[in-house]
Every structure is written in structure tokens, then in C-alpha cells.
Hints:
Blueprint: H1 3-8, E1 26-30, E2 33-39, E3 47-53, E4 59-63, H2 78-91, H3 93-100, H4 111-119, H5 131-145
Antiparallel strand pairs: 1-2, 2-3, 3-4
Helix pairs in contact: 2-3, 2-4
The structure holds zinc ion.
Zinc ion binds near residues 50, 61, 77 and 80.
Amino acid sequence: MSAWERSSTARVIAPARPRKLAKVPFVELADGRMQGVVSSGSDIGRVYVSSIAASTYAYGCSTNNNRPCGGARGWYCNHIRALIGEAVLQYGAERVARYLKVDLADAEPSGDSLIDAMFATRPGADHSGAAATVFSRFLRHLAYLELAPTTAPLPEMQWFPPTRAVA
Length: 167
Ligand SMILES: [Zn+2]
């Protein structure tokens, strides 16, 4: 499938378990990463953009204006840990493990066993600079929340055909 087809048929998946949004307003498995936005514990005006790459488990954490997170030096910071916890609620631990390609061996799938298995491989920092992309996906996501509920098509979504391919 082309990138166009994949992005035009993305399905919305109901959360595995209900999630509170105050701490982690946005989490997704996309672009080969678990990524999302985590509220700062201390400053209401600040958020962190955190991510873990599939396969390498390389991690990134920085503020929305691109300052590196002080807690993410050589270790998964609290933001990344919170993101993992919420991804597990949203998608279920098995699905997160599959997406990130984590081998849990005999461990019970959970946020903690995911962290242990990934961190045992001594992952490095991710310098791919994904934060800006993730943050703009989050803002886009928020913009849809401001629309009045309706079953009519959104004009900007009419770029995309219904799930069947159009010849
Ligand atoms: Zn952090």
C-alpha cells in the first residue's frame, strides 16, 4: 500500500481502557514511534513531546519549544514513562509491544515490563527531531475537537475517498 492509501484508511481504535487526558493529552503509535504530548508536572503552560522509536527504543523528550528535557539524559524520564503508561491504557500492552517490536519473553505484558525490556537494550537518545512533527499532529488533533459534532463530511477530509480505492 502507498503512504497515501495507508493514511486515508486509518481507523480510529477505541481505547483498551478509559484514559484521563490531563497528564497525557495525546499518544499515538505512528511513524514508527510511540509518541505523544505529556503535561509538565509543575508548569501548566508547558508540555513535553516524548517518543520512543520502534526496534531501537531510542528515546526523545523535549518541550514544545524544543528545549531538551533535563530528565531524559541516559534514562527514560518521567514524561516518557507516563507516555508508556498511557499508551498501554490506550492500545493495550500487547499491541504496544508488537508495534515497538519489544520481546517480552515470559514477562506479563505491562508498562513496567515494557520499560524493563526496552531499557535492558541500553537505548540511545533519538536525535531525529520528531518533536515538531509530533506537536503539530497534536495541535491538528485538538483542532478537530473544536468542531461542533456532526455526521456531515469535513470539507478538508474530502481529499480522501471512502475506504474503497477509487479508480
Ligand atoms: Zn522528559
